[in-house]
């Protein structure tokens, strides 16, 4: 551990840069998954046929091993961060779509009927009733997607990406445990912090919903 702490003291600037790169890749991939996944989840909740098609395609994407998916994407997008971000986007889709779908379909029908009774349009019911009540479920999906994305991002260097994975693979190739831990420990901390922050937000929305 002494070697690890010495390495961190000597290279903390580079580690901060790698951590920032790691966070940016995850945030962009997750944001894209939200922009695409939430509308797909809404679409799935409105029609059973659409639900089967959308969830099946998302499940197929999730089944692909992360490295195999990134290699396939590399053929289309080349080496670099773009391939990693697209991979994180695709890997984050299923939790976002599925939990949006589940959350919307779990809303009590009587509440929706009450909305209709006071003259709300279907769009108003969706925005003002269904989505707020489904938010805790949706946050669960975002929480799962964030943790998955942080983990998958560690293999980014294998397809020319940046982030903390650079230290992990440098440590493995050079048989340098200090570099390995310098990449792995911050990545693990990022995953724990993301999970904790989203869990608290999820609990807050549940309390507000009650």
TrEMBL record:
Record's keyword terms, sorted: Membrane, Transmembrane, Transmembrane helix, Transport
Pfam families: BPD_transp_1
Membrane topology: Multi-pass membrane protein
Transmembrane residue ranges: 20-42, 54-77, 83-104, 125-158, 178-198
Protein name, per record: Osmoprotectant transport system permease protein
Organism: Paenibacillus catalpae
ABC transmembrane type-1 domain location: 19-202
Location(s), subcellular: Cell membrane; Membrane
Cross-referenced SUPFAM superfamilies: MetI-like (SSF161098)
């Amino acid at each position: 551990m002494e070697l690890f702490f010495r390495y961190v003291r000597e290279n903390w600037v580079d580690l901060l840069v790698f951590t920032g790169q790691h966070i940016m890749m995850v945030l962009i991939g997750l944001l894209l998954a939200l922009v695409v996944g939430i509308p797909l989840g809404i679409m799935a909740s409105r029609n059973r046929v659409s639900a089967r098609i959308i969830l099946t395609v998302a499940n197929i994407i999730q089944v692909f091993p992360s490295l195999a998916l990134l290699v396939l994407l590399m053929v289309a997008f080349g080496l670099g961060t773009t391939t990693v971000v697209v991979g994180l986007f695709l890997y984050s889709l299923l939790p976002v779509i599925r939990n949006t779908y589940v959350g919307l379909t779990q809303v009590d029908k009587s509440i929706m009927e009450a909305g209709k009774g006071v003259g709300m349009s279907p769009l108003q019911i969706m925005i003002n009733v269904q989505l707020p009540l489904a938010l805790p479920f949706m946050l669960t999906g975002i929480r799962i997607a964030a943790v998955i994305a942080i983990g998958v991002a560690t293999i980014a260097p294998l397809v020319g990406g940046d982030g903390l994975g650079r230290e992990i693979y440098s440590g493995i190739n050079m048989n340098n445990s200090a570099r390995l831990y310098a990449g792995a420990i911050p990545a693990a901390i990022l995953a724990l912090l993301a999970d904790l922050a989203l869990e608290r937000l999820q609990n807050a929305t549940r309390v507000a919903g009650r």
